[in-house]
């Protein structure tokens, strides 16, 4: 068949689509005028003349008798050859064999298995091996390798009670009580890997506390705890993804520690690791919730519970070819028992220790020693208690009862610095231990002079105490000597106090 693209000068042609080329050439073979061809096809007459000239030149250069290749003996145009949708293994092998990349096949195959793209492979080929060919040759070679060797996935098998998988999806449209409009809540699903038994619950929004609470509800629904939980790298569970040492959310980590469960976050962009729960979410959305609407979240959760108990758990699973409920009864004894006390949900905040050694939480102040002043500590706020922990080690420093009234201060007297108002009470208590008269005298001085004379009370009580100790240690004397000494002793502080008082008044 005549091909105008294979002829010399074809680059100057106005390229037509294949069906227009066949139409123009057929009309030329039938001696149709250029004007008529233009009227029938809309092709410009200059283009028609160029096709006619190329065809005439091809017929003149061909040896022997030339027959029209575009029209069969009965005047019918043969159908075009169908495109090749698949490439045989022999074709791929021969194409790769002709590629300049064949010398580096083993190295390139290893890079393809490492999920590296063609651009990165080409750059390393040039830097490491002095690759002389172009990037396009590497791109074609890599594309053929990926087509010939698709990625292989392993079939994972787990023991009963070994693993559970969790993830979020979208629930059915439900009336939002705030706006009065339908919107989709978040669908939480936890699936036991061995039996495929699932727990489903919808919530309006997720948070650290909600994520931990949903796990706890799932564990109590199953009546036991698995050994591992596989989750996605969402912020409610994982703060910093890492293949070996992921940083978990502190609330989620505390919940897992309470139930003795180990978290196993999947790698980033690797949904196949938790394909069991992914399939459970799709099954829930496509079978249970498709085409349904609910007026409240409670109605949707009740429907999901009914659907799980009566349909999902009674079905024969497509992979195991066994009933889900029967496999769950086998798995349930292997789940670890639940702890006696439920997990206490808390809110965790970071606070700075003030200069009075307290931290401020909800407008109340709590003692934070031994944390240094100016350092940052972690505060866990429970319903009735406050825990102060070290920010780095999470070691427990202090525990306080949570104050209900704003402005409360929880700080023991022993941890407070000197304060005159408290020191006065200490001095009066010390005078009370000496004797009631000393206590009355100090109280009179304090009532008369106020707080500035608290130091005088201290001196007075100290002097009286020393006199009392000295009196008890002296030998017996005559009554006259004792009386005169006592009289002179009692008069001297009186004259001193009066002199000080008079001088202050002056």
From TrEMBL:
<feature type="domain" description="Integrase catalytic">
    <location>
        <begin position="156"/>
        <end position="332"/>
    </location>
</feature>
<dbReference type="Pfam" id="PF22483">
    <property type="entry name" value="Mu-transpos_C_2"/>
</dbReference>
<dbReference type="InterPro" id="IPR012337">
    <property type="entry name" value="RNaseH-like_sf"/>
</dbReference>
<dbReference type="InterPro" id="IPR054353">
    <property type="entry name" value="IstA-like_C"/>
</dbReference>
<feature type="compositionally biased region" description="Polar residues">
    <location>
        <begin position="64"/>
        <end position="73"/>
    </location>
</feature>
<dbReference type="InterPro" id="IPR001584">
    <property type="entry name" value="Integrase_cat-core"/>
</dbReference>
<feature type="compositionally biased region" description="Low complexity">
    <location>
        <begin position="472"/>
        <end position="489"/>
    </location>
</feature>
<feature type="region of interest" description="Disordered">
    <location>
        <begin position="59"/>
        <end position="78"/>
    </location>
</feature>
<feature type="region of interest" description="Disordered">
    <location>
        <begin position="468"/>
        <end position="506"/>
    </location>
</feature>
<feature type="compositionally biased region" description="Polar residues">
    <location>
        <begin position="490"/>
        <end position="500"/>
    </location>
</feature>
<protein>
    <submittedName>
        <fullName>Putative transposase</fullName>
    </submittedName>
</protein>
<dbReference type="GO" id="GO:0015074">
    <property type="term" value="P:DNA integration"/>
</dbReference>
